[in-house]
TrEMBL record:
Keywords: Coiled coil, Nucleus, Ribosome biogenesis. Pfam families: Ebp2. The lineage of its organism: Eukaryota, Viridiplantae, Streptophyta, Embryophyta, Tracheophyta. Belongs to the EBP2 family. Residues 40-88 form a coiled coil. This is Uncharacterized protein. Residues 101-122 are annotated as: Disordered.
Length: 153
């Protein structure tokens, strides 16, 4: 008896599916029988509010993690810049030391430097701190007017 019922049930199930007729109960079928629609809407609203709170908490957590990651990246960049600066300073010190010991050797990687001021003329540093100011001139006030001692120009 049990087996015959199960085989009939299987054939009916397939037949209804082929005919595309609804024959299964809804997932909340029993809930509708026990609770009113107003109560179900209230519960649904609470569930949605709770879901929204969880999503907002996750967003705040992601924002904190992103901020932390950004700080780490910034610190890493600063360390790289400091390292590069240190290497540059060491390179300049090495170059100066080599230059003071009599220039660069011809077998060196770079060889002699061909600089435009190295054509027989020695390089002299100017003694003036502000070459655009004439000896008798003084800069006055916010207008940056050049005034000769005692006279306006």
């Amino acid at each position: 008896m049990w087996m015959s019922m199960m085989t009939r049930h299987g054939t009916c199930f397939v037949t209804f599916q082929l005919m595309k007729l609804p024959f299964l109960r809804l997932s909340d079928y029993y809930v509708e029988m026990v609770k009113s629609d107003a109560c179900i809407e209230k519960v649904k609203g609470k569930l949605l509010a709770e879901k929204k709170k969880v999503e907002e908490a996750e967003e705040r957590k992601k924002a904190r993690e992103n901020k932390k990651l950004a700080k780490e990246i910034q610190a890493q960049k600063l360390n790289e810049r400091a390292k590069q600066k240190k290497e540059d300073i060491e390179s300049v010190k090495k170059w100066r030391k080599q230059w003071q010991q009599g220039g660069f050797a011809s077998g060196d990687k770079g060889g002699d430097l061909d600089l435009p001021f190295d054509e027989g003329k020695p390089f002299h540093r100017m003694n003036k701190k502000r070459p655009w100011v004439a000896p008798g001139m003084v800069l006055v006030g916010m207008q940056n007017q050049m005034v000769e001692r005692g006279k306006k120009v």
